[in-house]
């Protein structure tokens, strides 16, 4: 394509020229992922779930008690749908721009100033979350020690929260924070999902016997409650699905043709194509006529659209794009490959949000039914006896969640620090040891805060009210507004971007051109 047919492609090519340096280059692991096939769809689902499962988990029964069980279920479903939409919005823009991180995406579309604001919000949000993980970890381990050996009551040095935080933080959390990609943490992310399932099972195990009792007070369980607590519980549900800081990186690392659950048709088609590949390898070309070659191209494209990476490999082996027999169908296959990744990402997001939402509904509902009208605190596990076997299992799994969620939330903060450094320097910066120094610095700062405070409620207010709303709703909304503005005047937008690409001068992609900005101001006068 030439001319103005594809201005995005022209700008992307201009970005790679030596006269068009990017403000925020891909992270050091970008080349590594370019060589690899990419992260699989199941591992990406586990990563998104690990990003979402965190601090608000234990407060869900409290939220359901404040809103009522029916309203709590409805709000959970609504929040899940809304945040899945915002996650998909970020993934769509990530495909369009090729950005490796949330900050890079915002810089590309909205400009450097918005990227700086987002980077600061990301650092603050991730910093507060990591501090909360350390605090919850110490509380869980102390309760376990008290329930098993009564060590906390004797004041043993190895049961003090400072020692627990130093030992597990430095021995487990810090080493897990050094990998430079989310896919490297896919294995530990599965532990977060297992921990969430175990916590839900433990609460349900303690709730089901009272529900079957004849004297259960169903009148104390309200389907809807309107009051100050109703609105105070909404942030708990909102931040329970937060994985926006990592979703762009998850999409960037995702394989080109993600398959969550391969269909029988996909397996059958690829089996047939594998047989054809063996014939080509032997030199026995089964295609005798041109129309048969075109038909095979159609089958390859169809198999590619079903999410099979083998089809693309077979097409490359056959050399169909070079023979000329496929013509425009080779371009169709390439386009299908690009869209297949986004379709796979949509399935990944829906699966991750759906699984998390179902488990949240069960936890909130069972926790509320277990206590009825009795006031429920912000930590549902504190409502049970510490020596209960099922609750001890839940505490173990909760501590495990904190251990594996800490590094997954530290990674976007480290990337945001890199983008801030690039924004200040206005050029590509090469700093040896930045990865290690930033990791140690962030860990040391979160460790200092966790050792000096135990007020988890204050931590929630700090990270939630100040930064979370902008990350979850604010920036995706601005991206949608920017896209709508481009759609209203596509010709002027494309011409300006094509001119900028041809000139080779630096201009952040997606920033409103001067001529288009003047036209918008005139239209609103």
Structure overview:
This is AAAP family transporter: amino acid. Residues 1-36, 502-525 are annotated as: Disordered. Residues 38-262, 340-495 form the Amino acid transporter transmembrane domain. It is found in: Membrane. The chain crosses the membrane at residues 104-127, 163-178, 184-205, 348-371, 391-412, 433-452, 458-480. The chain is an all-alpha fold. The protein has 3 domains: 1-35 and 491-525, no CATH class; 36-259 and 336-487, Hydantoin permease; 264-335, no CATH class. Helices cover 73% and strands 0% of the residues. The protein contains 23 helices and no strands. The longest helix is centred in the middle third of the chain and has 44 residues, at 328-371. The relative contact order is 0.20. Mean pLDDT is 74; it is low at 1-36, 304-337 and 499-525.
Question: What is the strand and helix layout of this fold?
Answer:
Layout (H helix, E strand, L loop, with lengths): L6 H9 L14 H6 L5 H12 L7 H8 L1 H29 L4 H9 L1 H37 L2 H4 L6 H16 L9 H27 L15 H5 L1 H6 L4 H10 L10 H19 L7 H16 L3 H10 L1 H4 L4 H44 L17 H37 L8 H19 L3 H33 L1 H14 L10 H10 L2
Helix pairs in contact: 1-22, 3-10, 3-13, 3-18, 4-5, 4-18, 5-6, 5-13, 5-18, 5-21, 6-7, 7-9, 7-19, 7-20, 7-21, 9-19, 9-20, 10-18, 10-19, 14-16, 15-16, 15-18, 19-20
Q: Which range does the strand content fall in?
A: under 5%
Euclidean distance between termini CA atoms: 38 Å
CATH architecture title of the largest domain: Orthogonal Bundle
Number of helices: 23
């Amino acid at each position: 394509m030439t001319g103005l047919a594809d201005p995005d492609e022209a700008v992307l090519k201009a970005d790679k020229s030596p006269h068009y340096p990017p403000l925020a280059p891909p992270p050091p692991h970008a080349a590594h992922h370019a060589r690899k096939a990419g992260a699989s769809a199941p591992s990406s689902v586990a990563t998104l779930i690990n990003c979402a499962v965190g601090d608000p988990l234990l407060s869900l029964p409290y939220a359901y008690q404040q809103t009522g069980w029916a309203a709590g279920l409805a709000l959970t479903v609504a929040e899940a749908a809304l945040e899945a939409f915002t996650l998909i919005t970020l993934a769509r823009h990530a495909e369009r721009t090729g950005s490796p991180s949330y900050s890079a995406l915002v810089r590309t579309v909205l400009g450097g100033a918005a990227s700086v604001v987002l980077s600061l919000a990301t650092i603050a949000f991730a910093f507060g979350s990591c501090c909360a993980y350390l605090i919850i970890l110490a509380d869980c381990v102390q309760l376990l020690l008290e329930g098993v050996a009564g060590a906390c009551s004797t004041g043993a040095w190895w049961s003090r929260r400072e020692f627990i935080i130093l030992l597990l933080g430095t021995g487990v959390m810090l080493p897990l924070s050094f990998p430079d990609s989310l896919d490297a943490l896919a294995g530990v992310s599965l532990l977060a999902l297992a921990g969430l399932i175990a916590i839900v099972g433990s609460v349900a195990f303690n709730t089901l016997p009272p529900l079957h009792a004849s004297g259960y007070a169903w009148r104390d369980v309200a389907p809807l409650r309107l009051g100050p607590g109703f609105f105070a519980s909404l942030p708990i549900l909102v931040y329970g699905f937060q994985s926006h800081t990592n979703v762009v990186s998850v999409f960037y690392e995702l394989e080109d043709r993600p398959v969550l659950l391969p269909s029988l048709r996909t397996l059958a088609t690829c089996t047939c194509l594998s047989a054809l590949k063996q014939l080509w390898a032997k030199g026995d070309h089964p295609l005798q006529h041109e129309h048969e070659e075109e038909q095979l191209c159609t089958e390859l494209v169809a198999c590619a659209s079903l999410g099979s990476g083998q089809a693309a490999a077979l097409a490359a082996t056959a050399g169909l794009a070079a023979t000329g027999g496929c013509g425009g169908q080779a371009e169709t296959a390439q386009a299908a490959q690009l869209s297949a990744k986004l379709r796979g990402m949509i399935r990944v997001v829906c699966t991750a949000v759906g699984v998390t939402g179902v488990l949240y509904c069960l936890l909130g509902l069972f926790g509320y039914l277990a206590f009825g009208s009795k006031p429920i605190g912000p930590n549902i596990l504190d409502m049970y006896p510490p020596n209960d076997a099922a609750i001890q299992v839940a505490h173990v799994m909760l501590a495990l969640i904190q251990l594996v969620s800490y590094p997954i939330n530290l990674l976007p903060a480290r990337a945001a620090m890199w983008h801030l450094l690039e924004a200040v320097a206005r050029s590509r910066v090469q700093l040896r040891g930045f990865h290690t120094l930033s990791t140690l610095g962030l860990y040391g700062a979160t460790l200092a805060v966790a050792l000096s405070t135990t007020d988890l409620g204050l931590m929630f207010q700090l990270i939630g009210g100040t930064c979370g709303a902008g990350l979850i709703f604010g920036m995706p909304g601005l991206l949608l507004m920017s896209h709508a503005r481009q759609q209203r005047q596509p010709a002027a937008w494309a011409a300006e971007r094509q001119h900028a690409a041809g000139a080779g001068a630096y201009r952040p992609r997606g920033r409103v051109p001067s001529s288009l900005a003047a036209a918008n101001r005139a239209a609103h006068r």
